[in-house]
Amino acid sequence: MSGLMNMILSMLLLSGVIFGVARITPGIHLKGFGAAIQVAVVYSLIDMLLFRVLAFFSLPFLLITFGLFVFVINAVMLWLTDKILDDFEIEGFGTAILASIMITVGNLILKWLLL
User: Fold this and answer.
1) Torsions phi, psi of 91, nearest 5?
2) What transmembrane ranges does the database entry give (predicted)?
3) For residue range 13-35, what is the model confidence (pLDDT) as tens digits?
């Protein structure tokens, strides 16, 4: 599969996971699947731009927690996505952490099964 098709499929998978997580998690509000695609694109851009910087500065926490602090980093990126987009809202940081765990695990499982 070409790089572009792989990227498009990855975005659609992430959008589906985000849509599913928003449907089953209280405190997450998403206005349809189109908004889930927007969230996936913005979240991925934030991930590309900030994840390594955030991981570097939180390295002691990542080491102490055996990498589990990555869910907090992902929650921060979800919170930033919430602040950028009007059609996506997360109520509280605890909800962002829960969503971060569910999105990360769900996306990894789908990629493992399909890609």
Assistant:
1) -95, 100
2) 33-54, 61-80, 92-114
3) 999 999 999 999 999 999 999 99
